[in-house]
Design brief:
With 760 residues, the protein is of the alpha+beta class. The chain has 19 helices and 29 strands. The strands form 7 sheets. It has an 8-stranded mixed β-sheet with strand order 3-5-1-12-9-10-11-20. Strand 13 (275-283) and strand 14 (289-301) form a beta hairpin. Helix 9 (307-316) packs parallel to helix 10 (349-367). The chain is globular, with a radius of gyration of 27 Å. The structure holds ligand MTE, hypoxanthine and dioxothiomolybdenum(VI) ion (MOS). Dioxothiomolybdenum(VI) ion (MOS) is lined by residues 200, 232, 235, 343-345, 347, 513-514, 716.
Length: 760
């Protein structure tokens, strides 16, 4: 089959709707008659016994129709999918400021919001743990600490010619999707509930709503046409919003919508885990790492949520692109009285990679070398030094080639020399440059999640409706999968419409996460379309008396030996001859296997690679900093859609730079999040883009594994290209001496570092 749509830089299928305001997000759906709006009453204590909750004032408030508390939950009061430790509404105990206590249902959003402030809640405060370090001291964990050891780290450390150690803190990050959490639940006949949810995981919302409302999965339908961004934030925690809407709809018998405003969304729902990283490294004169001891303490918040797999991924990625022969990683999953941390693009990978890059950078400065040289010393080999600390053999290593190409295209060496000269002459403004690699493992680390389903219908006019378990969050999944289906059937992509993710069309779908959306749904949809193509082919062979090998589909036509028949005409004929034109497809990722008890095996089908060079300038009097130029080379294999993939690379990088430079989460001593709006939490804007931004996809580098059209996953890996910005800032302010710069490198963090650094 000749690919026609695949590989083309087609625009996002909803681009024309996005830019004209016609793309329907959950809040834009027509509101049903009798709709009630919900607002959440939130805990104002970080850790306390709930003594009493008087909601009479709420109920008496204007427009209020009802309230919902833990007592109104007919089924399970839980939305934790792995560990059942996530109450929908607090029951007797509150564990973070912002935790939902109750919902008020009213005839308008304003009425509901006003009403919740009428609640009288009595607390008996308990001791609260606000930060991961205290949690480690008090052994407060959501899950047991895990250790991964390879080789003999203690022996290697003791015998190493040089040794360094230290502690660095790495901040969390709010997903800051433009569309906040939202769900609308509509009671259906005979006990059914329909939930429109902004979720990466409709299947999980379905099962959790079923459990909470004491129903069965068959009674619940969850639909999501698109999200206005998710970034991991809607992987597990959308279930909370969907459930509250469903519970209120169940209780009142009326449709209910819950839409969090920005502040409530930031206060009530989870973010990227911040980490405290302790390290002890031994290395030789060339900077080659001989032994390494890592201890990670991450803020998991008040419950386990996805913290198990997030921290596992941090452990898997603390090698980044480097061979660690003797290493120990101890990972603490700290229980704090703050909102439960959750998935965020990279899913722990960025934190692990930051740790090793920090160590490499330290080594370079201790040895007075260019960090580039130390990075190269430590890269995985292609045929030797190619086994990860979790025993996966790396078969697709291309980091050296990527570096070679990017070093030349970015003129790294020339610019570094020039920057050194500039800095020697400039007292206040200092420039810095850094190159960092990305190697990111593709697959859910939980093997069972690596499966996907699709449903393809061909209608009598030859057009197609495509459905799969994947959700669209702006990443361009729908267009990529549609391209695959169009090519499988040899039709123009305009004849393919992708319908909303819907649990009644494709059941049991995994979250659209781990960057695996197009890999898995692309394959599943291809298989579904191939089934229909085969049926039509078999029919046409019989009908026209030719062999199947003489039949091909392209350009909206079927080539049948020497005949050309329009695809719609052939489809009509097949239908009239009673050929089934609808099929499901199913895919499971091959080759992966992994034993979580020993942290060994092959958790990842393959790796995605990239590299970035960032140049920054820092004002050493104010700490103010900006990116001047960024050069990126990223590996998407044979890209399904280079336009969409380029957008993912650019967006991922910018989001990574935001995480490490401007986005700062700050909790006060009581555990209240102080940064819960754009006024205090600064995400990158257009004006923060590098004025000189050069992004390329690596060419002629097909995935060596048989992924869909040999493409590679692209959703998360580019975020970690942003690491180069942090190390460029460190380069600018450190000169050639080491210094302790904590992340994010806000002006404040930079000034503190400069204050503590030895003066020239
Ligand atoms: N891109 C946009 N525009 N919006 C998003 O919410 N989420 C990211 C990434 N890119 C996201 C995005 C995350 S966290 C993941 S896991 C992947 O997209 C998920 O989609 P995919 O598997 O189809 O790449
Ligand atoms: N990545 C993203 N989401 C996940 C994963 C993962 O590895 N495991 C469970 N949810
Ligand atoms: Mo992405 S953090 O795997 O949703």
């Amino acid at each position: 089959m000749v690919a026609r749509a695949v590989g083309k830089p087609l625009p996002h299928d909803s681009a024309h709707l996005h830019v004209s305001g016609r793309a329907a997000y959950t809040d834009d759906l027509p509101e049903p008659r009798d709709l009630l709006h919900l607002a959440i009453g939130m805990s104002t204590a970080a850790h306390a016994k709930l003594l009493d909750m008087d909601l009479s004032g709420v109920l008496a408030a204007e427009g209020v129709v009802g309230v919902c508390t833990a007592d109104d939950i007919p089924g399970e009061n839980n939305y934790g999918s792995i560990v059942k430790d996530d109450p929908l509404f607090a029951d007797g105990l509150v564990q973070y400021i912002g935790q939902p206590l109750f919902a008020a249902a009213a005839t308008s959003v304003d009425a509901a919001r006003k009403a919740v402030s009428e609640a009288c809640v009595g607390y008996e405060e308990l001791e609260a743990i606000i930060d991961p370090i205290t949690a480690v001291e008090k052994e407060s964990f959501v899950l047991p600490s895990e250790t991964l050891v390879r080789g003999d780290p203690d022996g290697a450390l003791a015998g190493a010619p040089h040794r360094l150690g230290g502690r660095v803190s790495l901040g969390g990050q709010d997903q800051f999707y433009l569309e906040g959490h939202i769900a609308m639940a509509i009671p259906q006949e005979d006990g059914g509930i329909l939930v429109y949810s902004s979720t990466q995981h409709p299947d999980e919302v379905q099962s959790i709503v079923a459990h909470a409302t004491r129903r069965e999965a068959k009674d619940i339908v969850v639909i999501c046409r698109r999200m206005g961004g998710a970034f991991g934030g809607k992987e597990s925690q959308a279930a909370l919003i969907g459930c509250i809407a469903a519970l209120a709809a169940d209780k009142t018998g009326r449709p209910c919508k819950l839409r969090l405003d920005r502040d409530d969304d930031m206060i009530m729902t989870g973010k990227r885990h911040d980490f405290v990283i302790d390290y002890d490294v031994g290395f030789d004169d060339d900077g080659r790492i001989l032994g390494l001891d890592f201890e990670f303490a991450s803020r998991c918040g008040m419950s386990a949520d996805l913290s198990g797999p997030v921290n596992d991924r941090a452990m898997f990625h603390c090698d980044n692109a480097y061979f660690l022969e003797n290493v120990r990683i101890l990972s603490h999953r700290c229980k704090t009285n703050t909102v439960s941390s959750t998935a965020f693009r990279g899913f722990g990978g960025p934190q692990g990679m930051f740790a090793i890059e920090y160590v490499i950078d330290d080594i370079a400065r201790a040895l007075d070398k260019d960090p580039l040289a130390v990075r190269r010393q430590n890269f995985y080999g292609e045929d030797e030094r190619n086994v990860t600390h979790y025993q996966q053999v790396i078969e697709d290593n291309i980091v050296d080639e990527l570096f070679d190409q990017l070093l030349v295209s970015s003129d790294y060496e020339g610019r570094r020399a020039e920057i050194r000269e500039f800095n020697a002459a400039s007292k206040v403004l200092k420039r810095g440059i850094a190159i960092t690699p990305v190697k990111f493992g593709i697959s859910f680390t939980s093997t069972l999640l690596n499966q996907a389903g699709a449903l393809v219908h061909v209608y009598k006019d030859g057009t197609v409706q495509l459905n799969h378990g994947g959700t669209e969050m702006g990443q361009g999944l729908y267009i990529k999968v549609a391209q695959v289906v169009a090519d499988e059937l040899g039709i123009n992509i305009e004849h393919v419409r992708t319908t909303a993710a819907d649990t009644s069309k494709v059941p049991n779908a995994s979250a659209t996460a781990a960057s695996s959306g197009s890999d898995m749904n692309g394959k599943a949809a291809q298989k579904a379309a191939a089934k229909i193509r085969k049926r039509i082919t078999a029919f046409a062979a019989r009908h026209y008396g030719v062999s199947e090998a003489e039949i091909d589909f392209r350009d909206d036509t079927a080539l049948i030996a020497d005949r050309i028949v329009d695809f719609p005409e052939l489809v009509q004929l097949a239908w009239a001859n009673r050929v089934s034109l609808s099929a499901t497809g199913y895919y499971r990722t091959p080759k992966i296997n992994y034993d979580r008890t020993t942290f060994s095996g092959r958790p990842f089908y393959y790796f995605a690679y990239g590299a970035a060079v960032t140049e920054v300038i820092v004002d050493t009097l104010t700490g103010e900093n900006r990116v001047l130029r960024a050069d990126i080379l990223h590996d998407c294999g044979d890209s399904l859609n280079p336009a969409v993939d380029l957008g993912q690379v650019e967006g991922g990088y910018v989001q990574g730079v935001g995480w490490l430079t401007t986005e700062e989460l700050w909790w006060d001593d009581r555990g209240a999040l102080g940064t819960h709006a754009p006024s205090t939490y600064k995400i990158p804007t257009c004006s923060d883009l590098a004025p000189d931004f050069r992004v390329e996809l690596l060419q002629n580098m097909a995935n060596r594994e048989k992924t869909i059209y040999r493409s590679k996953a692209v959703g998360e890996p580019p975020l970690m290209l942003g690491l180069s910005a942090f190390f460029a800032i460190r380069d600018a302010i450190a000169g050639d001496s080491a210094s302790r710069l904590h992340a994010p490198a806000t002006p404040e963090s930079i000034l503190l570092t400069l204050r503590d650094a030895p003066h020239e």
